[in-house]
């Protein structure tokens, strides 16, 4: 039987793996500059963690979670998102004693979705959280750091911003919105006819064209913010304007998870079609209490790495390539010297050796096949004079160096050999 990767999953290797690595490295670099430290949470959690945090009416809980019982009859879920596990870890490990705390994470998430462009059943996500402060500067830092990642990667984006208020002003708005939706109930999709009575905000997040058209005329939540939420939102906008971060106020933006309060934002890239959000996030001031902890306000973002990979592949983005060398003995008599030099070279650059050595010709073919940039040739003359011969596989030029001279060039992170 020939086994294949499960539907909605795929293997990552070659050039695609390099793009994943680039995205993760840039993200970690930016997070370190902003004072975040890394956290790694389990790949599965108690299913109740996500039911409580995401909300029973969310699509994730109703349709998309991977659920299973272990041998102790405990109901577990593969994590569908990263924020709730981070908050659970903060509560369980008492990490908030030195709050505010700034954490970032990266890893695999799982949702039982219909696979399509930009959506997979197993996907990689990068995210960050600031927990323990109400200060709108923390909202600004989350937005600022996240879009810096996009800028450094060369990904174009359009920043959309909204406030979904606190529980008090949101409940007032829900009643106003429900009244509006009842007047258009027959025009809504079947899902929204149910959603509107459980959580009318969900209708604003519907992707059906007819529902989008109807809700375009719906009352704006920002018109119903209480004084505290209004001041918070105005301060956040003042910071964004001060640092010349352009954004679009989007009253339809409510995000897809129930735990958001006040700030909600998304960065969109329109080369992706309907799945155009490359990152998003917001504030979740009541989440820690909902999960059994004390009052710990928080704000964060998450980015689906696959969508960024797709964009960078379409842009044919090329990143600085690491040079790859193969050390090739001319005959088997030079193996010992070649292996010794290989060990020295590996202190500085990616270096290979021709396994299953037959002869020089077959080794040269292998070097080309493995996409090496250069081969280091070692024969009896090279050993006698403590030299190496370097060949550029792209243009065929060849040049000799003393071994010490060559290692000095490599150790100074220069690969300019005049070839």
TrEMBL record:
Residues 1-329 form the Aminoacyl-transfer RNA synthetases class-II family profile domain. It is found in: Cytoplasm. It is an enzyme of class 6 (ligase). GO terms for cellular component: cytoplasm. One of its GO terms (biological process) is histidyl-tRNA aminoacylation. L-histidine binds at residues 81-83, 111, 125, 129, 255, 259-260. GO terms for molecular function: ATP binding; histidine-tRNA ligase activity. Gene3D superfamilies: Anticodon-binding domain, Bira Bifunctional Protein, Domain 2. The keyword Acetylation does not apply. Keywords: Aminoacyl-tRNA synthetase, ATP-binding, Cytoplasm, Ligase, Nucleotide-binding, Protein biosynthesis. PROSITE patterns: AA_TRNA_LIGASE_II. Its EC number is 6.1.1.21. It catalyses: tRNA(His) + L-histidine + ATP = L-histidyl-tRNA(His) + AMP + diphosphate + H(+). Its main location: cytoplasm. Homodimer. NCBIfam families: hisS (TIGR00442). Belongs to the class-II aminoacyl-tRNA synthetase family. HAMAP family: His_tRNA_synth. This is Histidine--tRNA ligase. The lineage of its organism: Bacteria, Pseudomonadati, Thermodesulfobiota, Thermodesulfobiia, Thermodesulfobiales.
């Amino acid at each position: 039987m020939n086994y294949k990767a499960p539907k909605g999953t795929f293997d990552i290797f070659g050039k695609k793996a390099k793009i994943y690595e680039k995205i993760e490295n840039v993200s970690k670099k930016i997070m370190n500059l902003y004072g975040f430290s890394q956290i790694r949470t389990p790949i599965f959690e108690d299913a109740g963690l996500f039911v409580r945090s995401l909300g029973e009416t969310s699509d994730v809980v109703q349709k998309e979670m991977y659920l299973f019982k272990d041998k102790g009859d405990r109901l577990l879920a593969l994590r569908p998102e990263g924020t709730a596990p981070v908050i659970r870890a903060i509560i369980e490990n008492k990490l908030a004693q030195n709050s505010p705390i700034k954490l970032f994470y990266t890893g695999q998430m799982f949702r039982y979705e219909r696979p399509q462009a930009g959506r997979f059943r197993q996907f990689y996500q990068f995210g960050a959280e600031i927990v323990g402060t109400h200060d709108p500067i923390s909202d600004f830092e989350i937005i600022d750091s996240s879009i810096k990642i996009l800028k450094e990667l060369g990904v174009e984006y359009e920043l959309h911003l909204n406030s979904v208020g606190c529980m008090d002003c949101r409940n007032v708005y829900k009643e106003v919105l429900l009244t509006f939706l009842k007047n258009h109930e027959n025009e809504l999709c079947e899902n929204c006819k149910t959603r509107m009575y459980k959580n009318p905000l969900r209708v604003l997040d519907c992707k059906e064209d007819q529902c989008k058209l109807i809700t375009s005329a719906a009352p704006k939540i920002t018109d119903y913010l209480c004084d505290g939420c209004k001041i918070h939102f105005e301060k956040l906008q003042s910071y964004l304007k001060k640092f010349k971060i352009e954004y679009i106020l989007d009253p339809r933006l409510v995000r897809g998870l129930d735990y958001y309060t006040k700030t909600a934002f998304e960065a969109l890239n329109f080369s992706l079609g309907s799945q155009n959000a490359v990152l998003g996030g917001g504030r979740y001031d009541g989440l820690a209490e909902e999960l059994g902890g004390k009052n710990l306000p928080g704000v964060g973002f998450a980015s689906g790495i696959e969508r960024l990979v797709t964009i960078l592949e379409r842009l044919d983005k090329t990143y600085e390539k690491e040079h790859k060398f193969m050390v090739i003995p001319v005959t088997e008599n030079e193996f010992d010297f070649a292996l010794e030099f290989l060990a020295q070279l590996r202190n500085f650059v990616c270096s290979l050796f021709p396994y299953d050595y037959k002869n020089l010709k077959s080794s040269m073919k292998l070097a080309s096949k493995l996409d090496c940039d250069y081969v280091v040739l070692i024969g009896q003359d090279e050993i006698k004079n403590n030299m190496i011969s370097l060949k550029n596989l792209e243009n065929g030029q060849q040049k000799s160096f003393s071994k010490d001279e060559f290692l000095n060039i490599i150790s100074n992170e220069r690969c300019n050999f005049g070839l």
